[in-house]
Amino acid sequence: MKFFFLKLLSLTVLFISLSFNSNSAEKVEYLKTDWSFKGLFGKFDRGALQRGYQVYTEVCSSCHSMKYVSYRNLAEKGGPEFTEEQAKAIAASFEVTDGPNDDGEMFTRPGKLSDKFVMPYENVKAAQAANGGAYPPDMSVLVKARGGGVNYIYSLLQGYEDPPTGIDLDEGVYYNKYMYGNKIKMANQLSDGLVEYADGTKATVEQMSKDVTTFLMWTAEPHLESRHQMGFKAIVYLIILTILVYFSMKRIWSRIETEV
Amino acid sequence: MSDQEYIPKSKFGKWFNDRLPLLSLASHLTDYPTPKNLNYWWTFGGILTFCLITQIVTGLTLAMHYIAHADMAFESVEHIMRDVNYGWLIRYIHANGASMFFLAVYIHIFRSLFYGSYKSPREIIWILGIIIYLLMMAAAFMGYVLPWGQMSFWGATVITNLFSAIPLVGEGIVEWLWGGYSVDNPTLTRFFTLHYLIPFLILGLVVLHIWALHVPGNNNPVGIDIKKPSKDTVPFHPYIVIKDGFALLMFMIVFAFFVFYTPNILGHADNYIEANPLVTPAHIVPEWYLLPFYAILRSVPDKLLGVIAMLSAILILAALPWLDTSKIRSAVFRPLYKQFYWILVADVLILGYVGAMPAEGLYLLIARVATAYYFLHFLVVLPVLGFKEKTLPVPLSITEPVLGGSPNLVMAKSKESMKQ
Amino acid sequence: MSEKKTNRRDFLFTATYAVGAVGVGATVWPMIDQMNPDASVKALASTEVDVSSLTPGKTITVLWRGKPVFIRRRTQEEIAEANSVKMEELKDPEKDEDRVKDPEWLVMLGVCTHLGCVPLNDKGDYNGWFCPCHGSHYDTSGRIRKGPAPTNMEVPKYEFVNESTIKIG
């Protein structure tokens, strides 16, 4: 039996490593940092989420939409956990198009908790037209939509460099050492002190990159914390039940001479 | 079936059972004489039943929230992930459940290959299994299309285009499959319908698969026919039930780890980008469980022949009971076959690996050699081996002494191989 | 089979069954709970309605949580009629003043308490509402007077945000 599970394990590991291989085509080594949400008990750093939200709103949101996230999410457990009042105030600071009213006209009103994040552009075409043909991707699930995940986004934000000699860049194209093919249509957005954090944290490029990436991880996986908590309980439970069933099995099979 | 007539104890039981013999069926299933030497490789039948039920239950609940429309599918999946109570859990179980299902079915198939379970009198069980496997692939493929991400869309485009390889009518068939001139909303809704239907077809076939199994009874690691019920068998309940249950729990621990801690590792990042008919992702790769066949497809430089090779790779399995000419079932007593068996396992793993790699240079060469060997194994090695191989003496029964030679030696040997 | 007799269902088996049952329960719950109203539905719990254009004697119907809500600006006669009814005549006794915040404004769920149809406005024997499905008559306060419906039409939680706006929910 020992060998059986050993074999099963090695098969599983082989399959996982296969799928790893198929997923990671890029060979650049990404920058790494210690993410609080990794690991069996990983949780988000509330401060980082709130700061990350600030970076998103003040910097990214002028081009990048986040259409699957609602203002109410900002106050939900496992997220930035703004108070309900704060979240309401945030929502109310945005103009939301609603309607049609009784006259058949669309109108704007202050945002409510139930509203989705307001989009910077009406639609994809408008976003492309305003950005030299390149659509700034929606950021709701961006972290999950990139092979490198959080490390990729974190690196990309800090990966702007002068192009090496021999590489010509067109107008509106920038060099980034972590971008696939190194050419990116988004200019470097972050610079030290760009935002002023309410909690007094020093807004270095590295700090802002980390905060906004943490925020993006949350928007992509809003239930990550409960997933980790539930997962730990589920696995502990399964191990206990497995042990009980193992001894029950031994007991039952002891009625006959065959070994199980 | 061979078990004695079951007579219910209560009066109502008798009345009911005379009209609908459900109690007889239950009694047959609990008493079903099972070889007592079944090892853990045999527990995957039960595990697969669990996988099917899990997929059906989680699938039904997801279908209550999913919207099969090109404009709304992606959004509705995000709605499930964010707003529906436990939606993220149910979706991750369903998505990873597909992978676990295939992991289990591959182990189940290779167990059958090792112990010769496909041989007479179990050919029908085997062929039903192949049909189930084909339907599983269809269901998995269509299910992967439903979130309407980039991999969904382009996977659907590539796979449906395989049919265009058919001479003359190919193009027409592809448009018929699409319901348009490209993969679009009509394709999505029909894939959803079929994805919903197929699991129930599989369920029906599983009933037949088990029915066909219960006629001759289980094969076993020694591969000999056994008398049932006898000293060599135990009743299914509680002996096999508890053993299957134990193995299932071990399996569930692995499953839970994927669901709760690495739920997206077996998928592709590109599928979190909404489908865009104007841009193809840089690498189109099928899910891991289809990679060996994908490698076979790409190893043939001709479109039609590639498709034929890929299909043959699966269909050849249906002919296996007749391609394998050996009278001995279990590889335990077939020293040469055992070597070739492990070579085949390695070959399929290599095909899977190169299937994930770009089809060029060394990878392509390896894929071609591995493809050739795959067919060689079934078409040449197996038929010849049956005549040429010198097999070891097979015991008369699981518990009784062996014909010729020291019983202890052979038993010890078989035990050793079972544990490998 | 050389079975040793073990009839005793000992502690080990009981514990295994019990722990297993807990797990089954914990697994079944998410499958049930997924059908409950989800987070986005719960978030849409309130609606604001502009009632400035409503003249006395008129009713508007607005949608709240997928159900119609009647907002009626009642005339003085209607209010008087609602107040004149004796409690013992009512199937579901409730004073008119307990059903309104401002007697001029009647806000209630436009759902018949019998089987959920939408009653018709200004119809029926009591100058209020009449449900066409099974013939329930409601008075000017939305109280059941005749027919199979068991209770008065329900008054939702609402408030006057300002003179011309009512917030339901």
Sum up the structure in keywords.
heterotrimer; B: 420 residues; mainly alpha; two-stranded antiparallel sheet; 16 helices; 64% helix; globular; disordered C terminus; C: 169 residues; alpha+beta; four-stranded antiparallel β-sheet; three-stranded antiparallel β-sheet; 4 helices; 10 strands; 24% helix; elongated; disordered N terminus
State the secondary-structure class of chain B: mainly alpha
How are the strands of the largest sheet of chain B arranged? Answer: 1-2
The termini of chain C sit apart by 70 Å
Q: Based on CA inertia axes, which overall geometry of chain B fits?
A: globular
Mean pLDDT of chain B: 92
Any idea what the radius of gyration of chain B is?
Answer: 24 Å
Gap between N and C termini of chain B, in Å? 34 Å
Q: How many helical elements of chain B?
A: 16
- Output the helix-strand order of chain C: HHEEEHHEEEEEEE
Describe this entry's structure for a reader:
- The complex is a heterotrimer of chains A (about 260), B (about 425) and C (about 170).
- Chain A is globular, with a radius of gyration of 24 Å.
- In chain A, the strands form 2 sheets. Chain A has a two-stranded antiparallel ribbon with strand order 1-2.
- Chain A is built from 7 helices and 4 strands; from the N terminus they run H-H-H-E-E-H-H-E-E-H-H.
- Chain A has helices at about 1-25, 45-60, 85-90, 125-130, 150-155, 205-220, 225-255; strands spanning about 95-100, 105-110, 175, 185.
- Helix content of chain A is about 40%, strand content about 5%.
- Residues about 20-25 of chain A have low confidence and may be disordered.
- Chain A is mainly alpha-helical and about 260 residues long.
- Mean pLDDT of chain B is about 90; it is low at about 400-415 and about 415-420.
- Chain B has about 425 residues and is mainly alpha-helical.
- Chain B has helices spanning about 10-20, 20-30, 45-65, 75-80, 85-115, 125-145, 150-160, 170-180, 185-215, 235-260, 290-300, 305-315, 320-325, 335-355, 360-390, 405-420, and strands at about 35, 235.
- Chain B is globular, with a radius of gyration of 24 Å.
- The two termini of chain B are about 35 Å apart.
- Chain B has a two-stranded antiparallel sheet.
- Chain C is α+β, with helices and mostly antiparallel strands.
- Helix content of chain C is about 25%, strand content about 25%.
- Chain C has 4 helices and 10 strands, in the order ααβββααβββββββ.
- Chain C has helices at about 10-35, 40-45, 75-85, 95-100, and strands at about 45-50, 60-65, 65-75, 105-110, 120, 130, 135-140, 145, 160, 165-169.
- Chain C has a 4-stranded antiparallel beta sheet, with no helix packed on it.
- The chains are: A mainly alpha (about 260), B mainly alpha (about 425), C alpha+beta (about 170).
- Chains in contact: A-B, A-C, B-C.
- Chains A and B meet through helix 1 and helix 7 of A and helix 4, helix 5, helix 10 and helix 14 of B.
